[in-house]
Amino acid sequence: MDRRSFLKKTALGSGAAAATALAAPAYAQGKRTLTMVTSWPRGFAVLDDAASYMEQMVGEMSDGQLTIEKKAPGELVGALEVFDAVSSGQADMYHSADYYFIGQHPGYAYFTAVPFGGTAQELTNWYYHGGGEELHDELGQIFNLKGLLAGNSGSQSGGWFRNEINSAADFNGLKFRMPGLGGKVLGKLGASVQNIPGGELYQALSSGALDGLEWVGPMADERAGFQEVAKVYYTAGFHEPGSGLAASVNLDVWNELTPAQQAIMRYASMATTHYQLAETLANNGAALARLQSQGVKTLQFSDDVWDAFGKASAEVMDENMSDELFAKIRGSFEDSLATSASWINKSDGYYVQQRVRVLGG
Ligand code: CA
User: Fold this and answer.
1) In the predicted model, is pLDDT for residue 234 greater than 80?
2) What's the pTM?
3) Ligand 1 centre distance from Cα of residue 316 (Å)
């Protein structure tokens, strides 16, 4: 979107906000239900868990005055159509992963994950204390959205493969599913990359339409059943070291909410991230052990492969730098990441190394 239409849209947005300010008392007196379209089939571990917690928390915190009605893919719109549906006002809000929408703006990658980006903790450090939330708002202004971070997958697995990856050349010609800027990195290594919604992945891998895929991590992947059709699982990946999920609200709808309702939405989204991330991290280890007991071989990519990921990642990031807002978001994120890393490496990182050395693990 060019600057002129952005300004026009902003002007329209403020006009709508002024009009709805008059109607606000009617909303304040009555109950409000927000229709939330999601990118997750019902019952999908981690992702639909986060959407469900957000739904539950908002209802409970508002004593039922503000409720969320969740719509899974196909119930109102398709899994990857949620952004346009909320931007246009067809639905009130979505729960999704914002890097699905890098076609709308590449800056959205940062609100889920970027290659060699931050862990879950580092993402939230940036979002709440390093300017990330304000940049999410600046991006959202273009599309008439108020973004909220609501959930995190933790560090994601490198993915499922039929055969081992012994060098970066093994990605050449591989039909692989990976969304976001990570997918563009694998494209540079010669992979044929597709972004297929989660609910369609099992079928695509079973039929051979895909040679491999990444989804989330052991808890979510086990529930999706990929171990039935592929047996090689790389446990660490470069592409999503701590993916944030987003609950984004149509900006006109957001402006109609009372300050208390907006606060409930914001604090419920923060609580969702904390509670769902803990659930996921508490369960991944046991899920991985079950996968291994079903014959899944767990591996790590070699340093040579990681180096190839790093080189291609830098190229992908640099290719987007002609976009002013992308460059601004990247600069802000990388400043925060450097600050986070300067302490985490010396504390958590070193501590975990020593714990493993002393106690094993
Ligand atoms: Ca993923």
Assistant:
1) yes
2) 0.89
3) 18
Provide the domain count of the chain.
Answer: 1
How far is Cα 183 from Cα 291, in angstroms, rounded to an integer? Answer: 25
Q: How far apart are the CA of 241 and the centre of ligand 1, in A?
A: 10
C-alpha 172/C-alpha 189 separation (Å) is 6
Cα(214) to centroid(ligand 1), Å: 5
Residue 250 maps to a domain: yes
Length of the chain: 361
Cβ contacts of 14-23, under 8 Å, gap ≥ 24: 16/252, 16/255, 17/252, 17/255, 20/252, 20/255, 20/256, 21/255, 23/256
Write the pLDDT tens digit of every residue in 273-308: 999 999 999 999 999 999 999 999 999 999 999 999
Nearest to 217 by CA among 277, 302, 165: 277
Specify if 9 maps to a domain.
yes
* CA 17–ligand 1 middle distance (angstroms): 36
Task: Kindly report the CATH number assigned to the domain that includes residue 81.
Answer: 3.40.190.170
What amino acid occupies position 235? T
Question: Strand, coil or helix: what is 246?
Answer: strand
The reply to whether 57 falls in a domain is: yes
